[in-house]
Amino acid sequence: MKNLKFLVIVLIALTFSCKSDKKGGSDYSVTKSDSEDIAAVRVSDEEMKRGSEIYFDRCAGCHGSSRLGATGTHLLPVRPEGSDKPGTLEFGTDGLKAFIENGTPGGMPEWKGIMTDEEIELMTRFLQVDPPVIPPYGIGEITNSWNLIVPVADRPTKPEHNRNIDNYFGVIMRDAGKVAIIDGDTKEQLAVLKTGFAVHILRTSASGRYIYSVGRDGRITMIDTYTKSPSIVAEVKGGFDARSVEVSKFRGYEDKYLVFGGYSPSHIAILDAQTLEPLSVTPTAGNACDGDKEYLEEARVASIVASHTDPVWICNVKETGMVWIVDYTDPRNPGITQIPSARFLHDGGWDSTGHYFLVAANASNKIVVIDVPNKKLVKIIETGIKPHPGRGTNIKNDLGNLWVTSHLGENKLSFIKTNPGEGQWTVVKEVQATGNGGGALFVKSHPKSKHLWVDRTLNPNAELNSVVDVFDTNTLELKATLPAPEGVDGRAVHMEYNKAGDEVWVSYFMGENSAIVIYNDKTLKVKKIIQGDWVENPTGKFNVYNTTNDIY
Ligand code: DHE
């Protein structure tokens, strides 16, 4: 069925051919004079603004902030020189509509039902005119946006409560633009804080005291857990669009510096982790890793992790395929080593020793392994179609120490051996989750657990995207497929363990009845369902202890 839909899309696409000229009055327009059937494409200023918002929210992650393409194809009106991908004008309104509504076999989701018909119609036109120009945003603009709400001197020096901060969970309520802080011991909601549009991830400071959020709007929010109820103490906008933030974790640098990874503009910004005052900005534009001398202005910063063994962050530059090892000992003038790897870098995490970092180059179906203390590329491993590990997870069995990734483009879990000996840095086992197709986003286990959890969030089949699969870490056999409990619906996304490693928290979003479902990791029975007006489309959840110590 899916293939049939794709064939229809391709046929529609091939039916159209056209050429463009541009702009009439204050409207954006393109005339397709070669095709008598198609009227000129017109987008008013108002529609351009709305289209940009929708694009930024739904499409920019994969297709690039400037529509130049990344994991997804470019979306420029006219085929760029040297590209084998047609321009959007060649697809025309009907072709683009078919793509947007149905998705593609390459992993683009079906947007019908998520976007309204009006939004889809607008996007079919928006994508056929030139993209809007992104204004400059550097250290001056970042400093102007900086808001120190509670200076360090006015903050408590010790917790104003007796709760166990280590077992707090920060939970992202994506569409509400909020982060909830939940006490993992009592399961009480302690605060729901306004953090900005579509928060993407949270990270905790090396001491565990502060929680930082970063959103698609580029806003960083700093939450203090020492106050009676968690409160926002500083905020700043590091760019227009972002997905990652991390703190300094090396001995002597705890809670000192923070790094922001910008999608748009493409840069890293280093900030004071106590106040969020900006210290330096370094653009990430540069040559692509493949040695073809291609210079890329849009070189977005994807995942970032902090080393525990050295004063460095690992910042992964998506479009160039360069892994940056950023030495933060002189934060105003950071030392940067660039390691060419593969494109396009996305998400990744540590092996169990904290010495090696593994990251997905999702468009080339590879996992890149970096030896961080020695600043060296170890290996590039082919795993499957569009690996998507999140931070991955580490398990141990007769095959060795294994780092695990799921895949967006196919139903496959790949187990990479990380300890020395035969098979090190190769895929030593592959297994399938339940049903067909890909769509998995995250995997998770815990050193104290015998279970490995995987979601299927982007699988188009509702019976699969609403369940989580649990594997036995010794046998790697599927042990259970857990459906959404009664009274809960939507897509299951992202698993997180509590500090003790005996509970797993799963989010349900994009349905009528959002929830955070807490499972007993031993019995696999539901222990608690957290719901309420404040639980709005929860996505990522971050346990303070596990996030601080990179336990996954
Ligand atoms: Fe994410 C991690 C980018 C879509 C939920 N996501 C990441 C990271 C990147 C990224 C670069 C790694 C951050 C790090 O470790 O420093 N994500 C993108 C995109 O570009 C993409 C594909 C499209 C977009 O426009 O954002 C995208 N992500 C999604 C979603 O649709 C999810 C499910 C819900 C949402 O927020 O819209 C989603 N991404 C997450 C979560 C993490 C994440 C929960 C953190 C995982 C972890 O355990 O660290």
Name the CATH superfamily assignment of the domain at 4-126. Answer: Cytochrome c-like domain
CATH architecture of the domain at 4-126: Orthogonal Bundle
Strand content: 35-45%
* Low confidence ranges: 1-26, 33-38
Quick one: biggest sheet? 5 strands, antiparallel
Count every helix, treating DSSP H or I runs of 4 or more residues as helices.
7
Helix content: 10-25%
Average of the residue pLDDT scores: 92
CATH fold type of the domain at 4-126: Cytochrome Bc1 Complex, Chain D, domain 2
Q: Which CATH class of the domain at 4-126? A: Mainly Alpha
**Are any ligands bound, and if so which?**
heme D
Query: Strands across the major sheet, in which order?
Result: 3-10-9-8-7
Report on the architecture of this protein:
Among the domains are: 4-126, Cytochrome c-like domain (Cytochrome Bc1 Complex, Chain D, domain 2), CATH 1.10.760; 245-340. The two termini are 37 Å apart. Helix 1 packs antiparallel against helix 3, helix 2 (45-63) crosses helix 4 (117-126) and helix 3 (88-102) runs antiparallel to helix 4. By secondary structure, it is mostly beta strands. It contains seven helices and 37 strands. A hairpin with a 6-residue loop joins strand 29 and strand 30. Bound molecules: heme D. Heme D binds at residues 60-62, 174, 200-201, 243-244, 302-304, 346-347, 390-391, 441, 457, 493-494, 539-540.
